[in-house]
Design brief:
Number of strands: 6
Structural class: alpha+beta
CATH architecture: Up-down Bundle
InterPro entries: OMP_efflux (IPR003423), TolC-like (IPR051906)
Number of helices: 9
Strand content: 5-15%
Main location: membrane
CATH class: Mainly Alpha
Shape: elongated
Order of helices and strands: HEHHEEHHEHHEEHH
Number of domains: 1
Largest sheet: 4 strands, antiparallel
CATH topology: Outer membrane efflux proteins (OEP)
Strand order of the largest sheet: 2-3-5-6
Subcellular location: Cell outer membrane
Distance between the termini: 68 Å
Family: Belongs to the outer membrane factor (OMF) (TC 1.B.17) family.
Protein name: Outer membrane protein TolC
């Protein structure tokens, strides 16, 4: 019987080990890595998809503008049937008359000079294409920034939950001690109730954090296009040591000429200048040449008319445009140039201020880490001291609970400081156009 029980015990043990292994594997599969989230968000983002579609549309428009360099060719056909003769009979020449006629022809025209409008149309199409590509690039930066921000918000809440769990363990041990002391008649019931009140507040905080985590997780996975699962856990490297921003980046990067937003503003100025040139082209003459070949005949009568090729040339001079609406449109376009240039200057100033603000925010976030670490060190030492004093009867329970709460707040401030630094660093890299964009499938 003992042998059977021992064998059964071994089988159950093996089964439990296998189940624990599978549970561990599943837990690992449910980890959320930041780099994977970035790639998923970039692939899922509808903003990026629309940006790619706009770039594709701009490319088609550029091809359309380029086609204007080539001749335009069109074919025409005409057929007429008269219930009475269209041409009455002519003795000896046309005895039967003609009741139908047809005409077919083809015309090719080539613009020789159009005031530069063809060239300008191609330049405008090219600038629009470049702007669309820059817009997509800016959208990708924004998606990566938003993903990082949401990720570190979730990390922050998860770490806060760890702090609460540690405090809960501490209070449970303290509560057990108080119950033993109360049973021994060494303390009053009031001290036991103090610990219970403290624990109730902690349980409320634990419930709030649990709900906050669910919302933060939902926000992150929906943004990244991942199925929502409450068991998903954001994963980060443990024991992260953050170096001073002065050592990592030395000086704030103020060269904004490579900044995507600045380059987009430059493209707007470039487009405004091209629009002025395009309006001026409306005042210039347009010259073109062409060739037409046509045939005129009847279906049941051979009129003997062969295909007749004709070459022609055209010149159009817009005389009234010099005092009409076209002249006023040039002035309107010049005003748009001034507006675009002013926007560029304002944008440059705003980008510079934004970069400097993000730099000082990063420095402050680093200082916050240092101060919060010091605060935690002092709070931990104070709690240990108060616990020794309390166990020795040199202080009261209120002081011990205050010390424990101070340590919990200090731990929370360290967690907040690290998450805040990661977010501020992402903002700084975004504003200085240094964010690393992962390679995705549809890139």
């Amino acid at each position: 019987m003992d042998v059977i029980n021992h064998s059964l015990y071994k089988k159950v043990s093996v089964l439990l080990v296998l189940l624990l292994s599978l549970t561990t594997i599943n837990a690992q599969d449910k980890k959320l890595e930041l780099e994977d989230l970035k790639k998923s968000a970039l692939e899922y983002s509808n903003h990026i998809k629309n940006g790619n579609l706009r770039a594709e549309k701009a490319e088609v428009a550029r091809q359309e503008a380029y086609s204007k360099y080539f001749p335009e060719v069109e074919a025409t056909g005409l057929a007429l049937y008269g219930f009475n003769d269209l041409i009455p009979p002519i003795p000896q020449t046309l005895p039967n008359g003609i009741d139908n006629i047809y005409s077919i022809g083809a015309t090719a025209t080539q613009a020789i000079y159009a005031g530069g409008k063809i060239r300008l149309a191609n330049q405008l199409a090219q600038v629009q294409l470049e702007s669309r590509k820059l817009g997509t690039e800016e959208t990708m930066d924004s998606v990566v920034l938003a993903t990082e921000t949401k990720f570190w918000q979730l990390i922050n809440i998860q770490e806060q939950q760890k702090v609460v769990r540690a405090s809960k363990t501490y209070l449970n041990n303290l509560l057990k001690q108080q119950e033993d002391l109360l049973d021994a008649g060494l303390i009053s019931k009031n001290q036991l109730l103090q610990v219970k009140v403290e624990k109730s507040g902690l349980l409320l905080r634990e419930n709030e954090l649990s709900n906050q985590r669910k919302i933060a997780l939902l926000d992150l996975v929906l943004y990244a296009g991942i199925s929502y699962d409450t068991t998903l856990v954001a994963s980060k490297k443990s024991n992260i040591e953050i170096a001073s921003p002065h050592l990592t980046y030395k000086n704030p990067e103020l060269d904004i000429k490579n900044n995507t937003m600045y380059r987009l503003l430059e493209k707007q100025v470039e487009v405004a200048h091209l629009q002025v040139e395009n309006e001026k082209a409306n005042l210039l003459p347009q010259i073109g040449v062409g060739l037409n070949a046509s045939k005129f005949d009847s279906f049941n009568n051979d009129l003997g008319i062969d295909i007749q090729p004709i070459a022609f040339g055209t010149i159009t001079i817009p005389i009234s445009a010099w005092w009409g609406g076209e002249k006023k449109q040039i002035r309107q376009s010049k005003i748009e140039v001034e507006i675009a240039e002013n926007k560029l200057k304002d944008g440059k100033d705003q980008l510079t201020v934004g970069i400097m603000k993000s730099w000082y925010d990063l420095l402050n976030a680093y200082k916050q880490i240092q101060y919060s670490k010091d605060k935690l060190l002092y709070a931990t030492e104070n709690l240990e001291t108060q616990r020794d004093y309390y166990d020795s009867g040199l202080t009261n329970l209120t002081d011990l609970l205050d010390a424990q709460q101070s340590k919990e707040e200090a731990e929370a401030s360290v967690v907040n400081a690290f998450a805040n630094y990661e977010q501020k660093e992402a903002v700084y890299l975004y504003r200085t156009h240094q964010l690393e964009i992962p390679t995705i499938k549809n890139n």
